[in-house]
Amino acid sequence: MSASANSSTFILRGARPYGGDPVDLVLRDGAVAEAAAAGTASAAGATVVDADGLVALPGLVDLHTHLREPGREDAETVETGTQAAALGGFTAVHAMANTDPVADTAGVVEQVWRLGREAGHCDVAPVGAVTVGLGGERLAELGAMADSAARVRVFSDDGKCVSDAVLMRRALEYVKAFDGVIAQHAQEPRLTEGAQMNEGALSGVLGLRGWPSVAEEAVIARDVLLAQHVGSRLHVCHVSTKGSVEILRLAKERGIDVTAEVTPHHLLLDESLAASYDPVYKVNPPLRGKDDVQALRQAVADGVIDAVATDHAPHAAEDKEGEWANALPGMLGLETALAIAQEALVETGLLDWAGVADRLSTRPARIGRLAGHGRPLRAGEPANVVLVDPAVRRAVDPGALASRSRNTPYAGRTLPGRVVATFLRGRPTVLDGALA
Ligand code: DOR
Ligand code: ZN
């Protein structure tokens, strides 16, 4: 790092866009100004960032983040959650609606959106609830949220499934008017009453009530058919089973307008961790079998799964420590997502860095209709950029995370890669691996 700190021009010297040949990426006035031959760019007053060996990607976009504000500021706030996002290489996150109060009105989504703007670490796109209070009985004011300053395009009752087929149909029909999408948390409620972990031989051994794959797959099958019937757009949250991948593949072959995401933890971890009875591994949907993990990785590589989305779910210690059965489900994700994508997808040869950019930036931005994000790294595009050092390996230290919560399942685990810098419209939010 050198030269004047407040200049609005940055030269990312020797950066490798999408892992390709090194160039000098010049960011000026919020946009990518040029990609010059490596070592040649200069500009008066520019800040030069030594990006030798660093991979440059478009700023990451998360489709599924729980920021917990309003209501559970003891677990996370918009400020701390978006700090975690920037440190993880994200320039935009979708803030889930299961807050308290629920984000089911224009007033609440505007509040979250405004808090995001004030924090300034990344863009915050609020997700609107599908039903009032996530109650699953009456549609929320989807149109008013879409028309609000927050311009909501993604609607979800995440944490709960929109299990009523008539309501789901109406929601799908309603959002067509403003090009919205329903993001379904696919969980048949009756099949998962009291469920604690993946249903299988292990749940029997451990004496924990099972969450069967069919409870996810049945809802996805119904919803892709509903989406086809009404000609609307469906997104499936946190796909976790091999069977779900097969249904999505068939739906896409039929031309149904469905997209899907998988979490980093479902790409790396499996149900065997439940044998520890450590609630840090309790998550919804649950960690599945090794075959499921393999099928999910392959589906990301094939593009049947469009996006990796974190489902960053911070929880206060009192809700996460103690007995498995009483713990709330969920894991931190923002600060480790890119590292896990590197380990599970890049280092396995399933995806190159251009593929990572597509699944963690381009496609999620498109699904969320975030026009300024997920754009290619070329002249004239908004300068949303992350620089990652793929050569570093380091152990995850929960105490060093920016999130207000500590429920990472990767404590002490060595993961590859390090986010060195993040730029939001040409302004650094992270430099030298720390908040700028
Ligand atoms: O594990 C989860 N945690 N899954 C969800 O669907 C909700 C989330 C939360 O809000 O904690
Ligand atoms: Zn969910």
UniProtKB/TrEMBL annotation:
GO MF annotation: an example: dihydroorotase activity
This protein's name: Dihydroorotase
Organism: Motilibacter deserti
Domain Dihydroorotase catalytic per the UniProt entry, residue ranges: 55-243
Protein's job: Catalyzes the reversible cyclization of carbamoyl aspartate to dihydroorotate.
Gene for this chain: pyrC
Note on cofactor: Binds 2 Zn(2+) ions per subunit.
PROSITE patterns reported for this sequence: DIHYDROOROTASE_2
Cross-referenced Pfam families: DHOase (PF12890)
Family: Belongs to the metallo-dependent hydrolases superfamily. DHOase family. Class I DHOase subfamily.
Binding positions for substrate per the UniProt entry: 66-68, 98, 284, 315, 329-330
Residues of the active site: 311
